Design the sequence.
């Protein structure tokens, strides 16, 4: 039955991929939605079993092997599932969001010629993502890891006639490959030391990694093997979860259709890195250096991406930068050894961020594919459901009580405060300031899109279509919004107790709570939900969030010209933000162009000059020259030969005589 | 074992295509060449079935030579006509069979009988090289393969074919001359040409190093390894597609390392391993980067293949079971990937008249089938898990990281570089707006082409999802080879 959970979407993808083009359009969505829906039901059953049945029978985890992929003699590389509270939760979240996005797609992609192809891709994505989260070994995890990457690549470039879309797809794949480079090194080091890729075996023997060292070349600088392995694995996570400096592909991935921005680039795939680190918690716990690295990268991502979110005008890009920033929060939680908090925020974020994206998509279709927020405004009365749900999503994102984000984000900030690894002070301040920024850019978006005077359909649009008043999206679009909104309201308040305080995760997440006390402190201070709720009014984040909303209101609605004035006054800062800290420019100008110069240099210097010129032509000339020389010896004159013979005889006789 | 079976299957495998090739050559002008093409197809199918029979009957749990045939050939020198295959050869027998079949049946109705004859003869000689157990016999097959290949490129190749063939011929011949000297020396020491006997022949380190150099020249040219590769890209590009595939997919050079060099001079291999690892890593990075700058589709594929061969030789010299198994699997998967990509390039060329990347673009609109399959093959080429390309690459990288972190780090750049040139190729050929006016009017793949590529895709997918099926055949022999390499012969 477990195998059915990923295989149903796979079969749907294959069916629609092969026959979808010729079959009626309805068939595509019926097949895919049914398959993913069934997957969700099965996942929910597994989750219920894990939550309600397992504690009674004392099961902590269940490992199932499907088949042996490769038998290496010393170890077997298998395909199999590890079901525990962590994977059960992930499966349920993935299939739920995926199912809602499938339904939403029916409305969003209604008129697209690639309708069947789109469903095939997202069903394939769901399959890969499930293989990733359900895996019991690195091999299969890597399979899922690359599978979701492939789906992402194909979906970003879905509208393949746009050069910007295919470029963004390629960029996403390549940056992820840079991450995979680290991931492979990490896997390789673990494999070389422990001789296995199976998670449970690795966890059981994680202690053996302590104290080992590794160097780049024989006699080179010795590093702790565990630290190098963990940082390698985390580099993989940085690629997938778009952490600085491997983040630039995520904003560009907004070239893809909005449903996949919600599913892949917000709710599920980009959190795979977070999931992987949480899954590997027993290994990461051993290296404080790696945790420090993680917390610093996470904090940097959280704050810098929030800053960039402030200056975006494309509605999808605002949400994309907020995703980046929130992924930074999750990463900080990982660095603070608060793995359960990272997963909790991952879950709530999946709901409210998918909600925000889908709401943005709803606005985009209502305005005929207009994504510029400067051409929106005043939509709240015309699209009440979209507005209401978006507002819930925004509140949840900003972290206002009692919405989900409040319960999942506050603990992370607390964890950063009580962490002990180097860089946690920085992380604490970055996250706290991040709350203000999050509120700012989120409500700037809400105000610009839904409030104020309408700015769409103005004189710039001459053609008739844009003159109609935007209207609320159809049911297939709004129902998923409402479901996600309900999740965004309830997920936090319902699950904070079992997931953060209770023992939901059991042995699935193993932290060393003595060395890394952040979670333990949080436990000690817990006095129940009501207390937690009231306590929030005494901590800065809540007030910062409110201040952020106020600031957004001031700059967008109260005094719209103030923002421009401020931008002018802080011209240098604004320029840096507008250019994304020049990271893209650096990659484009230095890395890409540099590689091209090296490549053409290799072609000219290595291939044309050295291989072809020196080795091939040079050898040919050498032979020619040698032949010329030899030709002089063959003069054809008898006396030349006779002379040579006599000379040779003399030399030989001398040599012989001396030898005696 | 093949005990009790008196049919000389391996001889059949070798001589059936060669004799058929001669017949095809003789019949090529009869009746507009139709009988010759018909005969060529028949021969390809028959050999395929013989090979399939060999693979089915192959005992995977034995490292012994199977399907043995031994006849004294030149008694004075003790040269035997000795054939036999073990786990190291059987995979390549299978691949040669598949590739030959696809190449021959994919020929268009108008293709020349002479070309088909050359392909069949090359195929037969390749079987010979993979199953020879006598050094002279191996050498003869190894060298004789050059002749039909030379003719195939020289008569039916592209515009630069004369230069390319000359370079190809001289390079390969030059390399194998050193091997011939090494064979004579070994005969002088042991009074036998039996490869098995040589594996147990004690040799001083100095002798081994000299012999290593000689074997290395032959196999490094053929593989090819940096810096002896200059013949390869030109030959692959100028060769007609079928010949290019036969040349790039058979992996006879790398097989030479496994069959001769590593078991005969293991101590020298140990001593020189760091240098070989260095050359291999250099090849991976250098050829990968060079591939980035290519504007011709076939040349890009050629460099991609050579870069992957760097990973193969890396796997040979890590002296690690995982890496060696990976290297053997990578030889097979790279052969498949190169064949598939060359087929795609050919199908594009027959439509566009050209395979410069700049002339394509946006073929997905006009040719969804080719686009889909090309994307799949590209993914196999960049080692996406679930495809054949992943298996070997993953294992070699695991071995490399275990061998030395620095080597692993350098070798793992293939993940990024390989993806860069492959995806860039895909982006320029498959996606994007249509730049060339004729692209919009292209016809998609015909039924036969579709079937051909789908078979390859299915094999690559099956291999990627269940590589154990392939490894099981080679496993015992590879393990034995590794154990043998660990024993000193000093």
Sequence:
């Amino acid at each position: 039955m477990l195998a059915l959970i990923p295989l149903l979407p796979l079969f749907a993808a294959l069916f629609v991929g092969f026959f979808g083009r010729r079959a009626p359009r309805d068939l595509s969505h019926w097949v895919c939605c049914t398959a993913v829906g069934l997957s969700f039901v099965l996942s929910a059953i597994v989750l219920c079993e894990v939550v309600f049945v397992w504690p009674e029978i004392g099961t902590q985890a269940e490992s199932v092997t499907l088949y042996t992929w490769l038998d290496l003699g010393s170890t077997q590389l298998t395909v199999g599932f590890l079901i525990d509270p962590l994977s059960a939760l992930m499966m349920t979240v993935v299939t739920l969001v995926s199912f809602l996005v499938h339904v939403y797609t029916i409305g969003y992609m209604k008129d697209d010629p690639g309708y069947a192809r789109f469903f095939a891709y997202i069903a394939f994505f769901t399959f890969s993502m499930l293989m990733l989260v359900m895996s019991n070994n690195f091999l299969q995890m890597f399979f899922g890891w690359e599978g979701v990457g492939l789906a992402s690549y194909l979906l970003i470039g879905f509208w393949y006639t746009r050069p910007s879309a295919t470029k963004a797809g390629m960029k996403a794949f390549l940056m992820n490959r840079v991450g995979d480079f680290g991931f492979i090194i990490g896997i390789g080091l673990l494999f070389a030391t422990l001789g296995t890729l199976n998670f449970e075996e690795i966890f059981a023997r994680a202690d053996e990694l302590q104290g080992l060292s590794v160097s780049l070349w024989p006699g080179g600088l010795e590093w702790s093997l565990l630290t190098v392995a963990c940082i390698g694995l985390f580099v993989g996570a940085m690629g997938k979860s778009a952490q600085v400096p491997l983040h630039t592909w995520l904003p560009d991935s907004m070239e893809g259709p909005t449903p996949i921005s919600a599913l892949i680039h917000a709710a599920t795939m980009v959190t795979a890195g977070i999931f992987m680190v949480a899954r590997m918690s027993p290994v990461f716990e051993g290296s404080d250096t790696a945790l420090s690295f993680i917390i610093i990268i996470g904090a940097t991502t959280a704050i810098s991406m929030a800053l960039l979110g402030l200056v975006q005008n494309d509605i999808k890009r605002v949400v994309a930068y907020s995703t980046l920033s929130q992924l930074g929060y999750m990463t900080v939680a990982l660095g603070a050894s608060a793995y359960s908090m990272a997963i909790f925020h991952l879950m709530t974020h999946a709901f409210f961020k998918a909600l925000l994206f889908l709401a943005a998509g709803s606005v985009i279709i209502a305005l005929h594919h207009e994504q510029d927020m400067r051409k929106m405004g005043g939509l709240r009365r015309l699209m009440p459901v979209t507005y209401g749900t978006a507002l819930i999503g925004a509140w949840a994102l900003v972290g206002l009580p009692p919405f989900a984000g409040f319960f999942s984000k506050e603990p992370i900030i607390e964890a950063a405060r009580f962490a002990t690894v180097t860089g946690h002070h920085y992380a604490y301040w970055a996250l706290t300031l991040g709350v203000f920024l999050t509120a700012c850019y989120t409500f700037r978006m809400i105000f610009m899109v839904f409030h104020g005077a309408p700015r769409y359909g103005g004189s710039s649009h001459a053609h008739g279509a844009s003159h109609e008043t935007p209207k609320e999206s159809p049911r297939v679009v709004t129902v998923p919004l409402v479901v996600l909104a309900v999740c965004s309201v309830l997920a936090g308040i319902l699950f904070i107790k079992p997931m953060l305080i209770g023992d939901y995760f059991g042995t699935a997440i193993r932290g060393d709570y003595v060395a890394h006390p952040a979670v333990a402190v949080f436990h000690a201070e817990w006095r129940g939900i009501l207390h937690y709720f009231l306590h929030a009014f005494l901590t800065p984040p809540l007030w910062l969030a409110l201040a952020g909303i106020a600031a957004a209101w001031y700059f967008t609605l109260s005094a719209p010209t103030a923002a421009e004035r401020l931008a002018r006054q802080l011209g240098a800062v604004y320029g840096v933000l507008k250019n994304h800290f020049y990271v893209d420019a650096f990659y484009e100008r230095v890395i890409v162009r540099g590689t091209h110069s090296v490549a053409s240099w290799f072609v000219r210097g290595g291939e044309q000059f050295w291989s072809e010129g020196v080795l091939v032509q040079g050898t040919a000339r050498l032979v020619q020259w040698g032949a010329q020389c030899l030709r002089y010896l063959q003069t054809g004159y008898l006396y030349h030969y006779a002379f040579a013979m006599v000379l040779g005889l003399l030399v030989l006789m001398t040599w012989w005589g001396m030898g005696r | 074992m093949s005990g009790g079976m008196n049919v000389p299957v391996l001889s059949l495998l070798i001589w059936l295509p060669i004799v058929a090739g001669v017949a095809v050559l003789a019949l090529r002008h009869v009746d507009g060449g139709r009988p010759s093409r018909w005969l060529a197809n028949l021969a390809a199918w028959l050999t395929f079935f013989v090979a399939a029979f060999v693979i089915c009957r192959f005992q995977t749990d034995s490292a012994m030579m199977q399907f043995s045939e031994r006849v004294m050939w030149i008694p004075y020198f003790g040269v035997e006509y000795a054939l036999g295959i073990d786990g190291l050869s059987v995979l390549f027998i299978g691949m040669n069979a598949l590739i030959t079949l696809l190449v021959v049946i994919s020929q268009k109705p108008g293709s020349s009988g002479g070309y088909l004859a050359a392909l069949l003869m090359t195929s037969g000689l390749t079987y010979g090289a993979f199953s020879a157990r006598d050094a002279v016999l191996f050498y003869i097959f190894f060298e004789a393969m050059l002749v039909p290949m030379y003719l195939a490129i020289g008569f039916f190749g592209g515009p630069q074919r004369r230069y390319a063939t000359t370079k190809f011929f001289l390079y390969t011949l030059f390399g194998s001359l050193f091997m011939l000297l090494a064979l004579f020396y070994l005969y002088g020491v042991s009074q036998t040409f039996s490869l098995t006997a040589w594996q147990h022949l004690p040799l001083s380190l100095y002798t081994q190093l000299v012999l290593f150099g000689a074997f290395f020249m032959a196999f490094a040219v053929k593989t090819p390894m940096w810096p002896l590769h200059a013949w390869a890209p030109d030959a692959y590009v100028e060769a007609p597609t079928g010949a290019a595939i036969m040349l790039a997919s058979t992996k006879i050079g790398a097989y030479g390392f496994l069959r001769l060099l590593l078991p005969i001079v293991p101590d020298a291999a140990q001593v020189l391993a760091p240098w070989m690892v260095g050359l291999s890593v250099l090849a991976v990075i250098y050829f990968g980067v060079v591939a980035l700058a290519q504007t011709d589709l076939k040349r890009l594929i050629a460099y991609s293949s050579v870069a992957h061969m760097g990973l193969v030789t890396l796997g040979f010299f890590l002296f690690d079971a995982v890496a060696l198994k990976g290297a053997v699997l990578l030889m097979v998967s790279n052969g498949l990937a190169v064949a598939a990509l060359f087929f795609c390039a050919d199908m594009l060329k027959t439509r566009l008249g050209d395979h410069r990347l700049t002339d394509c673009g946006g073929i997905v609109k006009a040719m969804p089938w080719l686009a889909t399959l090309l994307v799949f093959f590209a993914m196999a080429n960049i080692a996406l898990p679930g495809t054949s390309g992943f298996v070997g690459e993953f294992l070699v990288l695991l071995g490399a990281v275990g061998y030395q972190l620095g080597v692993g780090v350098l070798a793992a750049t293939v993940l990024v570089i390989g993806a860069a040139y492959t995806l860039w190729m895909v982006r320029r050929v498959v996606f994007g707006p249509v730049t060339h006016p004729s692209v919009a009017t292209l016809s998609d793949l015909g039924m036969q082409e579709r079937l051909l590529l789908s078979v390859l895709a299915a094999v690559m997918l099956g291999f990627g999802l269940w590589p154990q099926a392939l490894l099981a055949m080679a496993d015992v022999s590879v393990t034995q080879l590794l154990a043998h390499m660990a024993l000193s012969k000093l």
